[in-house]
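Budget justification note: compute hours in this period were largely spent on complex prediction jobs such as the one shown. Inputs:
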Amino acid sequence: MHPTGNEASDPHICSIIALLHGPDRPGLVARVSNWIFEHGGNILHADQHRDSEENVFFQRVEWTHNEDNAGVRRLADAFAQMAQAELGMRVRIGFSDERARLGVLVSKIPHCLHDLIYRWKVGELKGDLACVVSNHQDLEPLVEATGLPFHHVPVMRETRAAGEAAQLEILKGYGVDLVVLARYMQVLSAGFLARVNVPVINIHHGFLPSFPGGRPYHQAHAHGVKIIGATAHYATAELDQGPIIAQDVTRISHRHTVADLIRKGRHLEQLVFAEAIQAHLEHRVLVYGRKTVVFE
Amino acid sequence: MHPTGNEASDPHICSIIALLHGPDRPGLVARVSNWIFEHGGNILHADQHRDSEENVFFQRVEWTHNEDNAGVRRLADAFAQMAQAELGMRVRIGFSDERARLGVLVSKIPHCLHDLIYRWKVGELKGDLACVVSNHQDLEPLVEATGLPFHHVPVMRETRAAGEAAQLEILKGYGVDLVVLARYMQVLSAGFLARVNVPVINIHHGFLPSFPGGRPYHQAHAHGVKIIGATAHYATAELDQGPIIAQDVTRISHRHTVADLIRKGRHLEQLVFAEAIQAHLEHRVLVYGRKTVVFE
Amino acid sequence: MHPTGNEASDPHICSIIALLHGPDRPGLVARVSNWIFEHGGNILHADQHRDSEENVFFQRVEWTHNEDNAGVRRLADAFAQMAQAELGMRVRIGFSDERARLGVLVSKIPHCLHDLIYRWKVGELKGDLACVVSNHQDLEPLVEATGLPFHHVPVMRETRAAGEAAQLEILKGYGVDLVVLARYMQVLSAGFLARVNVPVINIHHGFLPSFPGGRPYHQAHAHGVKIIGATAHYATAELDQGPIIAQDVTRISHRHTVADLIRKGRHLEQLVFAEAIQAHLEHRVLVYGRKTVVFE
Amino acid sequence: MHPTGNEASDPHICSIIALLHGPDRPGLVARVSNWIFEHGGNILHADQHRDSEENVFFQRVEWTHNEDNAGVRRLADAFAQMAQAELGMRVRIGFSDERARLGVLVSKIPHCLHDLIYRWKVGELKGDLACVVSNHQDLEPLVEATGLPFHHVPVMRETRAAGEAAQLEILKGYGVDLVVLARYMQVLSAGFLARVNVPVINIHHGFLPSFPGGRPYHQAHAHGVKIIGATAHYATAELDQGPIIAQDVTRISHRHTVADLIRKGRHLEQLVFAEAIQAHLEHRVLVYGRKTVVFE
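Corresponding output:
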């Protein structure tokens, strides 16, 4: 559901995408659009949101300039400076001609990784897989068949510090811009999350905040719920408590065993995981507090 | 979604509906259907379920006899005795010509009550509203306009015992077979639930087990979930922990305020509440442990 | 799901809502927001869409001025003139302190009318019901119980011209701004639609373009579809072909009879009808060609 | 959502699955279950449906005998004879230890084939892929990487007869029990469908009966619908008119381009295609007239 602005633009012209948020006040929309117009830019898409309780303003704006790459970068810098200094906004800038590099952490369960690889191969993903790191060797053949590098880093509870250090070195070696946990079954430490220094997206196979932690399908089955779900969120130091990016659900009945839930959940997890990653890569997600704004 | 058997039957012939459950063993389906056939009955609909982990067998079977009312009751008794004594099943029997009487508990919020009255008036409900009891007077005009009796029983925390006694006397005076909590904002005591001696169905405006207790839409908003839900369940002494009968959900985004969630939730609550009550009235719900089997 | 801008605004200050569309060109967003800012306005919400195939630009923008009512009207006029003359846009203007008046056409089936009255009474509807006109007398008691005026205008095939003339006179007498067809079972002539001179919203009990015309649930049942739907659209001279505003669906199975579909469909129809009317009343719907843009 | 009976059964014991349908009359359920019980069988799962308008009875019953393979086959034959001769039913028999062989027809678009291969590899499919036949060579590498045989049979309009003859020879050479069209973009002739002599399941990327034939996403986009869908059905000589097995939908808005619909539709098509194939392989689908009964 990416913004139509992408469609409208000449694919050879690089557009700037800015994500802004900060204290609301009159004239913000006008100031932003006016700045762009005065600098010769053409707005492809702009969307705003106000959180009236918190008095926070959010905006995603995408525009082009008839400039070469260097000119576009200079203008983006100037814009960011204006938005920070003059409007008091926090700013994140993306460029349509940049593709993020993804590092994948995975354990033994292949379906989320498999779906991600497929979407990447068919050109659906607005980024590139750079490497796969796993605490098991099971998925090595699957990964190597695709030509992606596979790294095996065993992580036990007692060796987590060393394991995480090795993982970080690998991920940094590939220069990843985003880490995605494609059913990675270990808890990442707060230290890892601090040092990795890029966003981390996790897929949880439960409808959070119901059923956090281990074996959510078993929990759901024991609880007798009539609908199950999956949740993609940014990983934080609190397990399964990070800001939710995407969720989806499916209906079940008393006839479904835990094995049925696991099978039905696979598809949900793939869908929700891909949706969250894509929204992030398209610079459509803004985090504030424990929540997200996901522009359409 | 009531069983097609109902359709097939002559509406003037009373059918028997039996709900059975007990330890699974070979031959149960054959024994039940054979008993009915040997006694001249005609099975309109039969559905089974096995919980293979717990080794429990569940069945809903509906059939007719070419007998008058008294004959049908005698045969139903004989069947129940056979199923208990010979098959070790727990049995509940219903008759298609009996309409349950519902007592409604409500506070100030009208939409679930309003929807229930409407469904009753258009003939959609397989039972009859008998009375409305409220701890507030706000809904008295709405109720009286429909011709239903309205009883105002104030219940404060310190007067709950007296209030519940008054509620029980009223409900028993109407001979209700089912109590439904149409957004009743007080917690019923374990004593009330024991003494009322009929099932109690509650509608909770959250997707249980997420957001039990008060102000679930506020909780959902604060949590930043992307989907909200409503849950109908049998009330038990543990608040919002009873066996779930029906759930439904709807998608929200960062744009929705708490007021929006409340407004969107109204429709969900009506739908889920009506679905659960209808399933109960059609003898399609079997409770076991903390879960339900809901036959279709 | 109305724009949060409404929330943010002081309810005592009247906001202007403008719906624009016309040929796309650079600088439109900047020009609009700049005009508002230069005239002392404060943008509460702005949303755009580009149809890149047709090169059409669409915008919904809502803003306030610190002016009295007369001042606000003058500024809105000035804005509209600028947008037409300078930007080549078609413009529609609404004011947050104006409530549209709705005329309802209905036949015998009450559920859509009933739901609409309820939403109006609880303050959910951003407009007011003005009158109900029916070609049957069945719903007169329901309508009169609410205090709304009810007009019976019999319409047969051979008397349609006279009937429509009478309907038009009544609707114009109430000064309605919108006509809604709450399961009105007659086809309105092209002449009626031309002369009524306000938008007409119809609810069709089928998932258009599947199953237009009569008895769509019977058609769906005969066709063996696994999902049924309802569609709200602007009425045009071509039956059930007007621009779609809202649709929703529900899952069915072979177990559902036509009667089940009709019962399940009721809720769908209410939901979709209300959603479309609300979107229209909040000035969120733009029609172009046979399609709509529905801003969120 | 396969029947729990499968779970209950010892995987090493072969169960019999019978699908029956024919004119309804009293005692059918009893006669079937009684026959099984008298022959020492144990019913794992039984489900019935009555079409009361057509007076047709449908049943799916699954049971075991403590017999070796030859004994089980003899008993299944005896059952089928009884059901035909005595009950006037049409009977189809399956065995839990038999895996159907699937032949896949595909053109250039890989996602449905890819998903099917994945489900097969992870053991989710209750059957085995036997071969892939395509009228293009694009997917040869994908197929060969999995070890499946790939056959290229060019089919032009003027060479369709020869092409279909070649396809039939290949499919018969592999002894396939089911042909699935994983986005096969040619129309199969009535002659092909008659001679292939096994069921053929097609995935159509539209919500039938809306948008049959070519380019359904383009049709949906032009029509301005708010929800799109996919439909899996048995192929018949009438294009896209065969009995529907499964459908699913997803919500779209004016923001989605045709390219977005195609992308969103991929996931829908995979899900619906797999669901229909699985239902067929589990002997849960009965066709009658233009409709299906899909047991759960």
